[in-house]
Amino acid sequence: MVRLCHRGLDSRTLRAELLQYLQTVIPFDFAYFSTTDPATQLGTSSVLVEEPPAWFMSLFVENEYLQPDYIKFHDMLRQNQFVALLSEATRNELQLSQRYRDMLAPINMKDELRAAFVNDKSCWGILCLHADITYGEREASFIASLAPHIADGLRKSLLLETANITETSDAPGVLILTDDLSVVAMTAAAEYWLAELSQAEQPTNAPLPVAVRSVVAGLQAIERGTMPLYSTPKVRICVPSGQWLVLYASRLKQSDIQSQISVVFEVAQPAEITPIIMQAYRLTKRETEIAHCVLRGWSTGEIVTQLHISSNTVQDHLKAIFEKVDVSSRGELAARIFTKQYLPHYKASFSGDSSS
């Protein structure tokens, strides 16, 4: 499994194969393995084993973002607890957990193991295992030993997924939903992007992809004050065609009808993609600043003036950047970080603006 994490597989293949191997070591009846946006911690795509009933995933998202409960992922990350057992958290009084009462007990599950895969303080994915047995230290320790490798594999897979971009639509889409996720209306572009997002997941009987459910739940969590979230719930995701999307959720309020939710699908602009790519390459804050300058076409002298550092310091940081990104020049750096689709937009967005 460790070797598998470092084979350079795409995210979906990596998760599916890991689950196959994992099931030979740790018994589970159901598994949910999702990638996450490292900036917002919202889910982006899922791989399932032994797909649960259709209602299960809706309750899963609602419980995670909108209900108080044990070992919620945002609590685990805040506490630097990357593996947890529901049985241990409740001291074997599972009925204390609403997730157990509403979701696990009805399908005869006795425990849940959760893991968050964190690399350099960024969460790249989450895992839930559900079983009709009670987990213990053996299972938790095994997952904990694998977690750094899985996090690294998910991080690297994100870079791999940006490599090949095919012809796709670049039109924004709008999806209108009610609070219970019933579809009110959608544009043709939204229908197109929904199909793309669905391809990023293991086939599921859920009516909407994880990314859509996550941004809606994020919005509802902000409104209810149940989670300390960002101002605009959004996720960035690379769809199977290689295109990067950004999904936003916002509330539509009209006096004559029930309040509805708008989910906007947009082709991600370079300013949205840059942070996640820099995180994936494990660049430091200063290295990220210098990489931004290079992508804007600035000379060493301009970087020195802008960042108030010496030319030797710039060269030292460039050397570190080149090693991490596995390139040998500024031109290769630009080509590696942004595909041909993004680089022209990036240059245009900064033309004539050397002060930002």
Task: Give the SSE string.
Answer: HHEEHHEHHEEHEEHHEEEHHHHHH
Helix content: 40-55%
Poorly predicted regions are: 343-356
Tell me about the biggest sheet? 5 strands, antiparallel
Basic shape = globular
Number of strands: 10
Structural class: alpha+beta
Radius of gyration: 21 Å
Which percent range describes the beta-strand content? 15-25%
Strand order, biggest sheet?
A: 2-1-5-4-3
What would the average pLDDT be, to the nearest integer?
86
The tally of helices reads: 15
State the distance separating the first and last CA atoms. Answer: 44 Å
Layout: helices, strands, pairs:
Blueprint: H1 2-5, H2 11-22, E1 30-36, E2 43-49, H3 54-66, H4 73-78, E3 83-85, H5 86-89, H6 98-104, E4 111-119, E5 122-131, H7 137-160, E6 173-177, E7 183-186, H8 188-199, H9 210-224, E8 234-238, E9 244-252, E10 260-267, H10 270-280, H11 285-295, H12 300-307, H13 311-325, H14 330-337, H15 343-350
Antiparallel strand pairs: 1-2, 1-5, 3-4, 4-5, 6-7, 6-10, 8-9, 9-10
Helix pairs in contact: 3-6, 3-9, 11-13
